[in-house]
Write a structure and sequence with these properties.
This protein is α+β, with helices and mostly antiparallel strands and 318 residues long. It has a single domain (62-289), classed as F-spondin domain (Immunoglobulin-like), CATH 2.60.40.2130. It has helices at residues 13-25, 40-62, 105-113, 117-125, 289-315, and strands at 64-73, 81-82, 85-90, 129-135, 150-158, 166-174, 179-182, 201-206, 211-212, 249-250, 277-285. Strands 2, 3, 4, 6, 7, 9 and 10 form a seven-stranded antiparallel sheet that branches. A hairpin with a 4-residue loop joins β6 and β7. The longest helix has 27 residues, at 289-315. The chain is globular, with a radius of gyration of 27 Å.
Length: 318
């Protein structure tokens, strides 16, 4: 049987709940064996749908949510690549670096070697954070993000908790000695409001956002800077290079004609070009609460349509 559903705009969660409740209470005509508007079974099914819907609305507001973090390398071809991305969800107080200040060990390891063990340890030993992890690149032995690459990871986060409401991130720019990107302001990206409602978030990391950790001299030497040729991973040992003993700054850019910009493989790796785009980071909730609610809503419409069809069929036999 082909069912034609009229064109309509799917209501929001509260509107859907009201409409399903209306279906349960309307048309209180006496029922006969031959002619029923909605059977007792039908009302029970709709009641179950409504109960599930109400539970879902409450659950999505105050309980753990599954969040998908999607990372894209949007640099031009022959541009920069970058490491897997470390992410953390916290209360707005996890500040793992400050521009103008010396780097801590966590930042040094992240920016020089894409080693996230120290930052994860720092995060988990703090009272600020709830969940952290890594979004790995799609392919390759070290799972980096090359131009055009995109990959996602999911995290279970309880938005009703104060230590889950903000998002921080960090990754190493490649090739480089200690270039990286991350948020200096721990309050920059709020993902849950005070009521625990998720706030969809998406932003672009620009070349102007690339920072220098100040921990290693930018000599671009193939044995010090990860990703510098002739093979991409000549520097495979951690914590090599010449100590700079500096502070975190905006990155000055690669050496003109040096081992990076002078390599045809990185002809478009000058992130100091105005408007240069490095990465896009997007945070969504999955499954979307309105998607699940919409399924329940459409299911109730289908059931009511079927019940009405049965009523019409019964009436024709009278």
């Amino acid at each position: 049987m082909l069912i034609t559903v009229p064109n309509f705009t799917l209501p929001n969660a509260k509107e859907q709940a009201v409409q399903i409740q209306t279906l349960l209470t309307q048309n209180k005509k006496p029922m006969t064996n031959r002619h029923t508007h909605l059977s007792k079974l039908g009302k029970n099914v709709l009641a179950g749908m409504f109960a599930s819907l109400s539970t879902l609305i409450s659950f999505s507001a105050v309980n753990a949510a599954t969040l998908r973090v999607t990372v894209e390398n949007i640099a031009p071809q022959q541009g920069n690549f970058f490491s897997s991305l470390w992410v953390g969800f916290h209360d707005g107080n996890f500040d793992f670096f400050d521009i103008g200040q010396p780097p801590n060990l966590a930042l040094e390891r992240l920016a020089e070697d894409a080693d996230f063990r120290e930052i994860s340890s720092l995060f988990n030993s703090s009272s600020a954070g709830s969940v952290d992890g890594i979004v790995f690149g799609p392919t390759g032995p070290v799972r980096d993000f090359f131009p055009g690459d995109s990959a996602s990871a999911t995290f279970t986060v309880d938005g009703s908790l104060a230590n889950s409401r903000y998002f921080s991130y960090g990754a190493m720019i490649l090739p480089s000695n200690d270039a990286f990107f991350g948020n200096d302001n721990p309050l920059a990206y709020r993902i849950f409001d005070d009521a625990g409602k998720f706030i969809p978030t998406s932003f672009v990391v620009l070349g102007a956002d690339v920072l220098d950790a100040g921990s290693e001299v930018n000599d671009e030497d193939r044995f010090n800077a990860i990703g510098v040729g002739p093979t991409p991973f000549d520097d495979l040992q951690l914590n090599t290079g010449i100590d700079e003993n500096g502070v975190v700054t905006v990155h000055p850019g690669f050496i003109p004609g040096g081992n990076i910009l002078g390599d045809p493989n990185f002809a478009n790796a000058d992130f100091k070009v105005p408007g240069y785009q490095v990465a896009r980071i997007t945070i969504t909730q999955v499954p979307e609460p309105n998607t699940l609610i919409g399924i329940l809503f459409l299911g109730s419409l289908f059931f009511v349509h079927r019940q009405k069809g049965q009523k019409v069929g019964s009436s024709t036999k009278m």
